[in-house]
Amino acid sequence: MPARTSPNGKGPRSGSGSNEVLSLRALNRALLARQMLLSRVKLSAAGAIERLAGMQAQAPLAPYIGLWTRLEGFHPDELAELIAGRQAVRGSLMRATVHLVTARDCLTLYPLVRPVLERGFYSGSPFGRRLAGMDVAPVLAAGRALLDERPRTRIELRRLLGPRWPERDADALAYAISYLVPTVQVPPRGLWGASGQATLAATETWLGRSVDPAPSSDDMVMRYLAAFGPASIADAQVWSGLTRLRETFERLRPQLLTFRDERGTELFDLPDAPRPDPETPAPPRFLPEYDNLLLSHADRTRVMAAERQVPLMPGNGGSSGMVLLDGFFHALWKITRHEDSATLRITPFVPLSAQNRDALAEEGTGLLAFAASDAQTHDVEFMPAV
């Protein structure tokens, strides 16, 4: 049965123990509320990025769709100006994947997730294995000096570092810099309507500030719960890529509420975080590819069927993604262009009711107006269910 809720819909304020069970729909609605997907909110782009504890952004334009679907009146220039003005950056952080974060979050999160990047390089990529047994400190110092001079691509780093260590794989040397030196990808990559190679700058040089020398894992976990809770220790570890977070959770336990999901897994949450009624209506929402909503839990069933995988979509983002119906991942979307027209094609996984088709068409028309504003004609098409 779902948790008892207080009159403000935020759930019990105190005395909630691990015997209280949250249903799948209760977890879904709590997640949607924190992800600003039950209704659009009036908030700055920077404020939203921080509330979300970062947005996955290896598809560099994906966060623009993610912010449009969450914020009232969002315009792409707002995020582009943050990136151009170095108030927001894209760099490898949680799960060793590229995330869009504010400048101050970048400086705090990087030292916390550095072990994830180190593991990703030495164990999760072929490049670290090619440098096995090598003292990489001189390589990192040389790469950092090159990036301090000016931003460079990996191809440039390969060309400049290779001759210094001719006995080593030049690609591996370049990748060592992107994994093991704090770096960000600089504009024009990541700007709406622009494109460019992935060009790296040293984070501290680009931002003119040093990384936090003593960041708090407690704060990181609390931020995670605020954006993705109620959640288990395993969930937080999947989101961050870190291991051994149990000690942090145990230290925080007196400050947190605990629940169980329907499988008996212990969940932690902030006392005043929203936990809406499970029957709260959830409007259809178009998410970009790789949205953290679908990637930040060990158990993703709160938002998608267990047998379904998050699709790997090619491209720079902004033209395809996933659809939430009644709060769950039930369709894919893609915008195609032909001359002056733009067509949004929606491919559902389940048959759609007339009410759902109408709601999706209305929301999809808004997506086209945002993502294909230069097209003279817009159309929404529904494909057969797959």
Architecture overview:
By secondary structure, this protein is an alpha+beta fold. The chain contains 14 helices and 14 strands. The protein has helices at 24-34, 45-51, 62-68, 76-84, 103-122, 126-130, 137-149, 154-161, 170-180, 203-207, 217-228, 233-240, 246-252, 354-371, and strands at residues 21-22, 55-56, 88-92, 98-102, 152-153, 183-185, 199-202, 257-261, 266-269, 285-288, 320-325, 328-338, 341-348, 377-382. The strands form 4 sheets. The chain has a 5-stranded mixed beta sheet. Strands 1-8-9 form a 3-stranded mixed beta sheet. Helix 14 links the parallel strand 13 and strand 14 (377-382). The radius of gyration is 22 Å and the shape is globular. Mean pLDDT is 94; it is low at 1-15.
Write the layout of secondary structure elements.
Elements: E1 21-22, H1 24-34, H2 45-51, E2 55-56, H3 62-68, H4 76-84, E3 88-92, E4 98-102, H5 103-122, H6 126-130, H7 137-149, E5 152-153, H8 154-161, H9 170-180, E6 183-185, E7 199-202, H10 203-207, H11 217-228, H12 233-240, H13 246-252, E8 257-261, E9 266-269, E10 285-288, E11 320-325, E12 328-338, E13 341-348, H14 354-371, E14 377-382
Parallel strand pairs: 1-8, 13-14
Antiparallel strand pairs: 2-4, 3-4, 5-7, 6-7, 8-9, 10-11, 11-12, 12-13
Helix pairs in contact: 5-9, 7-9, 8-9
Features:
globular, disordered N terminus, alpha+beta, 14 helices, 17% strand, 37% helix, three-stranded mixed β-sheet, five-stranded mixed β-sheet, 386 residues
